[in-house]
Specification:
Elements: H1 2-30, H2 35-38, H3 45-56, H4 62-74, H5 87-122, H6 127-141, H7 144-163, H8 170-188, H9 192-215, H10 225-244, H11 250-274, H12 280-301, H13 306-331, H14 333-337, H15 361-399, H16 402-409, H17 414-452, H18 457-466, H19 470-498
Length: 505
């Protein structure tokens, strides 16, 4: 394994050297960094041109100038821009903003895309499968800039108008209830009588919930509350256990319910005392503590086969704790929305934050979420389509393998066959797609960041390219190229973890 990693790293370094050399030449010959000065009317034009020429070493031929830039890169210095600003500082601010956006969008797209793709494969040739296929091809064919404009119009402007009086009309309630009922009917499957029962129950339940949310104007001041939280915590415990180990594993069921009970018992102290005066490090520490304590419950309850129980309780603990954090965020929604800077229009259309907002940890978190919402959705829609199709095709291929038939012939349950045998092997080709998409998503964020005014890597790249500024462009390329190489190496290592038959040596 070590020799394989070393060989790949050495090869990747040579690839990066060749790619950066070609990119530097292309950037150098694409435009003149002195163009704005040559066209200017400044009385000291000659001195300005001479100063910038010396600043950027423009009197050196581009092939030799590359090695000067490379020497600075080895020292950790990416040079300066044409405005004499350190590229390291520009890159630090931009990469933090972009990684916040891209990481959120990528994680959500992977989880949703793989989950929906697997369900679509298990419900092959049903209404749900056809509907997912239609949406996947629709999202995949949409231009990202057009999606971004539609999101600004309908997801921000009209949504903010609706939030001023958040009541749901009767036709909307009826339509959404029927659509939800049809989705659940397609998901559950079975005989027609069973499907019609699911349709009726899901439709009535959705209509009741929407009516309640409309009458109480829940969207103006949202909250979960201890009663709803208790039901959701128990539901999370049962649902995660059903997927992770199966409900036949009583130790996992009891351990998960104990974790849910701990969450319910801590709900009021957390909401009223512990989560007040929060900071980021304390927040992350509490999240880690929730996972550790939940895993410890699984370890004590799971003997002799502790591993699956610990995994299950850790996931349950994380989700239950996240639900409390979500409710705490909701408790500050009205204060954020009605603040003097937001003025009742919380869904942001431009920028990464609200200037001069102030507020505590929770208000700042809501502000980050509202600014992330639309650009994240724009990136998710495109990535979701590809992950859905790949995961569906991969699982269908695996489900037709001989070892899956053998597992079924042994009498294993459907959950065991899908989760333990099929799903793991279906992830192998998806791992390749994810590794290639990481660099592409950062490059694709150029359009998204431009439309939404997000000051990240995309804005840095476009601004530098328009100004014929070589060093920021090269900084963008170094980051994206390095990430692509790193994640391809990680993909190779994940192959071996998912399938022991793959020998990386």
């Amino acid at each position: 394994m070590a020799s394989f990693i070393i060989r790949r790293l050495i090869a990747s370094i040579f690839v990066l050297f060749a790619a950066t050399f070609l990119m530097y030449l292309l950037v150098s010959f694409s435009g003149d960094p002195l163009e704005d000065l040559r066209q200017g009317n400044a009385p000291n034009k000659a001195e300005l041109i001479q100063a910038r020429t010396k600043l950027l070493n423009l009197d050196v031929p581009p092939p030799l100038r590359y090695f000067l830039w490379l020497a600075g890169l080895f020292r950790g210095d990416l040079g300066v821009s044409i405005q004499n600003q350190a590229v390291n500082a520009l890159l630090g601010n931009a990469i933090t903003s972009t990684l916040t956006l891209v990481t959120t969008a990528t994680v959500v797209a992977i989880v949703l895309g793989i989950s929906v793709g697997i369900v679509s494969a298990l419900r092959q040739y049903t209404g749900f499968d056809y509907g997912v296929t239609l949406l996947a091809f629709l999202f995949f064919s949409l231009p990202i800039f057009w999606v971004a404009v539609l999101l600004k119009q309908y997801g921000a402007i009209r949504m903010n108008n609706w939030l001023a009086n958040p009541t749901i009309t009767v036709p909307v309630i009826i339509g959404m209830s029927i659509v939800t009922g049809l989705i659940w009917m397609s998901l559950i499957g079975g005989r027609w009588r069973r499907r019609l029962i699911v349709l009726g129950v899901a439709t009535l339940a959705t209509a009741a919930v929407l009516t309640f949310l409309s009458v109480t104007e829940w969207f103006a001041d949202p909250s979960i509350g201890i009663v709803v939280y208790a039901f959701l915590a128990v539901g999370i415990a049962v649902g995660v256990t059903a997927i992770s180990t199966g409900l036949r594993n009583r130790k996992a069921v009891y351990a998960s319910l104990i974790v849910a009970a701990i969450g319910i018992a801590l709900y009021s102290p957390m909401m009223n005392y512990i989560l007040n005066g929060m900071t980021m490090w304390v927040f992350l520490g509490l999240a880690l503590l929730a996972v550790v304590v939940s895993g410890a419950v699984g370890w004590f309850m799971g003997s002799p086969d502790r591993a699956p129980v610990v995994r299950t309780t850790a996931i349950v603990g994380f989700l239950v704790a996240a639900l409390i954090a979500l409710d705490k965020y909701m408790s500050y929604w009205a204060a954020y929305s009605n603040s003097s800077r937001v003025r009742g229009r919380p869904i942001a259309t431009v920028g990464a934050s609200t200037p001069g907002l102030g507020g505590n940890f929770w208000v700042q978190g809501i502000d980050l979420f509202t600014h992330l919402l639309l650009p994240t959705i724009a990136i998710i829609l495109i990535s979701f389509a590809s992950y859905t199709r790949y995961s569906r095709a991969s699982l269908l291929e695996v489900m037709n393998q001989d070892y899956i038939r053998t597992a079924r012939a042994k009498g294993l349950t459907q959950r065991t066959v899908v989760v333990r045998h099929a799903f793991r092997n279906a992830l192998i080709p998806i791992t390749t797609i994810i590794a290639f998409d990481v660099g592409a998503i950062i490059g694709g964020a150029v359009v998204t960041e431009t439309v939404f005014g997000w000051s990240g890597m995309g804005r840095l790249f476009v601004t530098a390219l328009d100004a014929h500024d070589p060093n920021p462009v090269m900084a963008f390329f170094v980051v994206t190229g390095t990430l692509a190489v790193i994640f391809n190496l990680i993909a190779d290592l994940v192959y071996a973890a998912l399938d022991p038959r793959i020998k990386v040596g």
